[in-house]
Amino acid sequence: MRELRRIGWWGTLLAALMAALSATPAAFANPYEKQLANGLRVIVKEDHRAPTAVHMVWYRAGSMDETNGTTGVAHLLEHMMFKGTPSIGAGEFSRLVAAAGGRDNAFTSKDFTAYFQQVPKQKLEQMIQLEADRMRHLNLDPKEFEQEIKVVMEERRLRTDDQPQARLFEQMGAVAFQAHPYRVPVIGWMNDLEAMTVQDARDWYERWYEPNNAFVVIVGDVDHDDVFRLAEKYYGPLAARPLPARKPQVEPTQTGTRRLTVKAPAELPVVVMAYKVPVVRDVEKDVDPYALEMLAAILDGHDAARFSRRLVREQRLAVSAGTGYDATSRGPGLFYLLGSPSEGKTPAELENGFRTEIARIVADGVSTEELARARAQLVANQTYKLDSMFAQAMEIGQLETSGVPYTANKRLIEKLQEVTAEQVQAAAKKYFVDDQLTVAELDPQPLPDTPRRRPAATRH
Asked: Are 120 and 60 in contact (CB under 8 A)?
């Protein structure tokens, strides 16, 4: 009877969250979309709760589009995009955004590069004008490049070379993937940065920064027809140009466990187990990515999750234990199990603990209560996301760049709702096998006498 009451409580919460989701005015009644003659898509989501607007430009070009010898160029160009145009001086872009009462930033991933400003709605036209200007008229001054490449190399030293866990994940990616470009770090290999030239950046800009390789997302207190007129005015005159052909980049089938050890100054060991898994390719037909998302929520994410309850509190095997999985990406997926063993426990014991928990799910499945809790958690995350205009814009952009239509947002949640305990069990049995596993271990070395440098604030 106690279990039924708990299940009923989670069911009530889930129903409330779904009602809130469907009742939110900004949730799915829009967005509106228009494609300009040059191929640029403009997506507008009206949200009139506050007099602000988020303006984002997404380019379908990330580190996975780079070639050997120029790794890191996508991220480097992101930095150079703030170095001015014939009409805007170096550094003036961000100053103008700040003067308008807004904030701006940019970020590069394996799949995309994106730029955003969040401003009072009356300043939106100025932001569109500024972004359209640098989409086609960017200055790539050799002197500015020489300064900025040094900034990027220092960023790599501080954020990767000096950070043990970052080094661990970088090396693990290079081992888990042997052919697919996901094996390359977004920031690039240091040797490539040292050899990079301003012409490399110029070639990347001219190859990918085209209106027909980009889309604009605007969320806020705006009228979509007004936004479309502004987009036609500023982005419309930019001519489309042919894009390079993207050839298939398929990772060969893995046929056995891969292992690596990274030695670095650190306080604790870290164990990462990465299994190759699918991501969403067909929203309607796919089953396993949704089951894997549910599995991640069952293993991690709250105090009652299996890893927190069993590995951390009951067995005291780990000081931390969690999962990582993203069901939407242009490239192949990885499902991470990661943690640090408790004092007196070894990385091998923690790895065995992870394996034991997965084996229990393969053998015994998951409970109705666990599934209800995971559903409520995942739907809650989607519901809370609607409180932020920036998060709404991010969601649209990330879905689109991964190849999933943003209009499928609601259907993705419904598909999560349809996941059964049997599907979760079947996914664990199918994908959590040694032939698809890469194990990375951080072997902690003595800490230096001087404190490690903290990562500097950067544009990201």
From this structure: no
| CATH superfamily of the 253-445 domain | Metalloenzyme, LuxS/M16 peptidase-like (3.30.830.10)
Residues 442, 265: Cα–Cα separation, whole Å: 9
Q: Identify the sign of the CA torsion 289, 293, 295, 296.
A: positive
Domain edges within the chain: 25-234, 253-445
Give the C-alpha separation, 277 to 430, whole Å: 9
- Count of CA atoms in the C-beta half-sphere (13 A) of 287: 12
Taking the CA atoms of 309, 311, 317 and 322 in sequence, report the sign of the dihedral they define: negative
How far apart are alpha carbons 353 and 355 in whole angstroms? 5
Which whole-number Å values give the CA distances from 440 to 345, 404, 433, in the listed order? Answer: 17, 31, 16
- Tokens representing 308 are 């927190």
Q: Strand 318-325 to strand 41-46: parallel, antiparallel, or no bridges (unpaired)? A: unpaired
pLDDT tens track for 193-227 = 999 999 999 999 999 999 999 999 999 999 999 99
Helices and strands (H and E) in the chain: how many: 17, 11
Crossing angle of helices 368-385 and 421-431, in 10° steps, is: 90
Is 78 among the catalytic positions? yes
Q: Answer whether 25-234 and 253-445 agree in fold.
A: yes
Q: What is the arrangement of strands in the sheet containing 214-220, beginning at the earlier edge strand?
A: 32-35, 41-46, 214-220, 52-59, 113-120, 103-108
Pick the catalytic residue: 46, 78, 357, 441?
78
Task: Tell me the pTM.
Answer: 0.90
Element (H, E) at 31: none
Element containing residue 210 per DSSP (H, E): none
Q: Under CATH, which architecture does the 25-234 domain have?
A: 2-Layer Sandwich (3.30)
Inform me whether the pLDDT recorded for 6 exceeds 60.
no
